[in-house]
Amino acid sequence: MTGPHPSVAAVRHAVRTCLADCLAEVHRPPIAVAYSGGADSTALLAATCFEWPGEVVAFVADQHWHDGSTAVAQAAAARACSLGAAAEVLDAPSDRDEAAARGVRYAALDAAAVRHGCGVVLLGHTRDDQAETVLLGLARGSGARSLAGMAARRGIYRRPLLGISRATTREACTASGLEVYDDPANLDPRFARTRVRNAALPALAEALGRDITVNLARSAELLRDDADLLDGLAAEAAPAVTGADGSLDADGLAALPPALRRRVLRGWAPGSNAAQVAALDALVVSWRGQGPVALPGGTRASRVSGRIGRVPCPDERNDFA
């Protein structure tokens, strides 16, 4: 008697390893899979249903990006049920801004996980997705945290397939006779990730070798270890330079190594981009009386009497009392 196709076995092994801690629990909680109907999430869902039979729910996000999106989502939900999962279509309308759409999608997944009592939501990102993320971060001039790519685990979310190639997930679907949906958005050149996937990475592979995707993903793994360490050190340093009113001591910040100082500033102003963090850093180490720095959330940061503090943007006062 022969076993499963090697690609099917590889995906199942990845899922089994990812859920090893859950398998040890006496009461097995339901496991959720974010399901789009594409090859990656289909291979993931099939493997999860095999490893976790009868306790899997597929969340299908309908973001209303085209007229037929609801029908596509409903068809995906039906395929999920045929694989042995329960399924729910999540209404998550958004425009085609990649970051905004991602935020809406995760908010819908968060709420669905609570409704179904799922402590784990599996995502179908592969090694190729990781390589694309690293390349995008490099092109945008991001720091080590962005170049570290996607975490294998963060909160309730887990990515079992970060060590599996996109070709393997598609091969697993083909070997199992599973129907997949190829989203036309994956060919839309308006999206930066699509351009990286279909143009930049193939060009790099031709110029530098076909293992470029593996190497980029490996770089992300190494950088994540470094970024985790620095983030931890920054979290330890932050209380010593933060006042009771939430303002920061400029001299205390200036004494920190640059890598820690910028992380403290980024944590103090969540959602800030690289330019905003650089402007905040200038308030600390290159202070020449410059004006306030606009921050996410409708606030701005100013330096007054040796401290960095925030005020609402409409407030024109030059203090943060």
- As for the number of domains, it is 2
CATH fold type of the largest domain = Rossmann fold
CATH architecture descriptor name of the largest domain: 3-Layer(aba) Sandwich
Q: Any idea what the radius of gyration is?
A: 23 Å
- Pick out the low-confidence regions: 315-321
Mean pLDDT: 91
Number of distinct beta strands = 10
Give the class-level CATH name of the largest domain.
Alpha Beta
Main sheet: strands, sense, barrel = 6 strands, mixed
Helix content: 40-55%
Strand content: 5-15%
Can you offer a commentary on this structure?
The protein is an alpha/beta fold. The chain folds into two domains: 6-208, Rossmann fold (3-Layer(aba) Sandwich), CATH 3.40.50.620; 242-321, Chorismate Mutase Domain, subunit A (Up-down Bundle), CATH 1.20.59. Helix content is 52%, strand content 13%. The chain has 13 helices and ten strands. The chain has helices at residues 6-18, 20-23, 39-51, 69-82, 98-116, 127-139, 144-147, 166-176, 192-208, 212-241, 250-254, 258-268, 274-285, and strands spanning 31-34, 56-62, 86-91, 120-122, 153-154, 157-158, 248-249, 293-295, 299-304, 307-312. A hairpin with a 3-residue loop joins strand 8 and strand 9 (299-304). The radius of gyration is 23 Å and the shape is elongated.
